[in-house]
Amino acid sequence: MQKEYAVQMAASNLRFGAGVTKEVGMDCVDLGLKRVAVFTDQNLRPLQPVRLVIEALKREGVEFEIYDEVRVEPTDLSIQAAISFAQAGNFDGYIAVGGGSVIDTTKAANLYASYPDDFYAYINAPIGLGKPVPGPVRPLIAIPTTAGTGSETTGVAIMDLTERHAKSGIAHRYLKPILGLVDPENTRSMPPVIAAASGLDVLCHAVESYTAIPFTDRPRPERPIMRPAYQGNNPISDIWSLKAIELTAQNIVKAYKNPDDDEARFNMILASSMAGMGFGNAGVHLCHGMSYPVSGMVKSYQPDDINVDHPIIPHGMSVILNAPAVFRFTGVACPERHLKAAEVLGADITSVNDIKAEAGSLLADQIIKIMQQLDVPNGLSAVGYTDDDIPALVAGTLPQHRVTKLSPRPADADDLELLFKDAMVAW
Ligand SMILES: NC(=O)c1ccc[n+]([C@@H]2O[C@H](COP(=O)([O-])OP(=O)(O)OC[C@H]3O[C@@H](n4cnc5c(N)ncnc54)[C@H](O)[C@@H]3O)[C@@H](O)[C@H]2O)c1
């Protein structure tokens, strides 16, 4: 096997600033979009971000239809409904106003409306066929309302596959939004549990991409087009990932405790897009790989302060609950990177004697301190899981090759069993 020697940075086109949402009508005109679909969810439909988009489109005379049936944590069924809407509408382009659920649903609807195919055709292998997106899709402008998934920067759309009780998705550069309007005013109304969960998703994107395998450890592709978006840690992603860790460390608790702290909210949505540019080119690994069955197999957990009609473990929560166990496990594989991440998160590293033995635990302890300040449940057992669920959680993680193979320390079924056992109680 020839090892990889190159890395490709797929840049994102983003505009940051308080109030940029109001510019979306002009952007549509400048892009030549005469008739667009506005995707959102029912909680966001009456709120300011969507109101501002509607006003902006009317002001510029852009014709639009609203689709507000996006499911929070999209499923194959909810995505198929969105695809039908998109296929029937003959739109020139799309605007997604919402969190990752909305942006990802819009990406998938846009893809299948542009290139209709069997539903599993584009879903990542081995769950789907992993067929590459055949060509450019219609323009999509993403307006995130969480800080967040970074979905405005990535070519990834994630969904729950209902019958398989696991998440998978579609990943291709052509799915990347043509423009992200990153407006900190849009995150002011996030419920506290979502401010916490989505902020912890940022943290995991940044730390996982920074600790992923080096890009030079992957096999070299035969053709440049076959080089995946998730390439492993690399000098360009490192810059975004480390800065995102730093901004998150400084702002996540402030933004959670006081949604009117403009500076903290700005820095968190900035961190979210920065982490997106990091992980969008490097990838994430075990925290995310293990999160897919954790959210897919949810039993009855439903946080009080979000308005959804089904049990849900918010995405970032399903990720962070695995994080302490994961970094304790991966620390030995690249201790310098774990130590650096812990230090940027505020850990005192001066008393470390044996970096290989201590770095992973130091990082895990620092993450736990943040989880505690954000009132995160104490481990998987606090969101309804028991040891009896571990075999199914392991089985749901094993097919997530796209991310798990980026772990700096390979994890087989026995390792995953121990990791889920460790993740049952975090502190
Ligand atoms: N595409 C990617 O690169 C990527 C990366 C990470 C996660 N994801 C996916 O994104 C989804 C999670 O997205 P998320 O964490 O952004 O949350 P979300 O979109 O699922 O929204 C969570 C809840 O918050 C509400 N909400 C969002 N913004 C709000 C606001 N400003 N005011 C009031 N309520 C608001 C929503 O209505 C919903 O009830 C998951 O499906 C996850 O797998 C995608």
Structural features:
Rossmann fold, 15 helices, globular, Dehydroquinate synthase-like, alpha domain, 6-stranded parallel beta sheet, 2 domains, 427 residues, alpha/beta
List the helices and strands and how they pair.
Blueprint: E1 14-16, H1 24-30, E2 35-39, H2 48-59, E3 63-67, H3 76-89, E4 93-98, H4 100-114, E5 140-144, E6 156-161, E7 166-171, E8 179-182, H5 192-211, H6 235-257, H7 262-282, H8 286-296, H9 315-320, H10 323-330, H11 335-344, H12 355-373, H13 390-397, H14 401-404, H15 413-423
Helix pairs in contact: 1-2, 3-4, 5-6, 5-7, 6-7, 8-13, 10-12, 10-15, 11-12, 13-15
Nicotinamide-adenine-dinucleotide is lined by residues 41, 43-44, 47, 72-73, 98-102, 104, 145-146, 148-151, 154, 156-158, 186-187, 189-191, 194, 198, 201, 306, 308, 315-316.
The radius of gyration over CA amounts to 20 Å
| Outline type | globular
Individual helix count: 15
Q: Which structural class do you get from the secondary structure elements?
A: alpha/beta
The biggest sheet, with number of strands, parallel, antiparallel or mixed sense and barrel status, is: 6 strands, parallel
Question: Could you explain the architecture of this structure?
Answer:
With 427 residues, the protein is an alpha/beta fold. It folds into two domains: 19-182, Rossmann fold (3-Layer(aba) Sandwich); 192-423, Dehydroquinate synthase-like, alpha domain. The protein contains 15 helices and eight strands. It has helices at residues 24-30, 48-59, 76-89, 100-114, 192-211, 235-257, 262-282, 286-296, 315-320, 323-330, 335-344, 355-373, 390-397, 401-404, 413-423; strands spanning 14-16, 35-39, 63-67, 93-98, 140-144, 156-161, 166-171, 179-182. The structure holds nicotinamide-adenine-dinucleotide (NAD). Residues 41, 43-44, 47, 72-73, 98-102, 104, 145-146, 148-151, 154, 156-158, 186-187, 189-191, 194, 198, 201, 306, 308, 315-316 line the site of nicotinamide-adenine-dinucleotide (NAD).
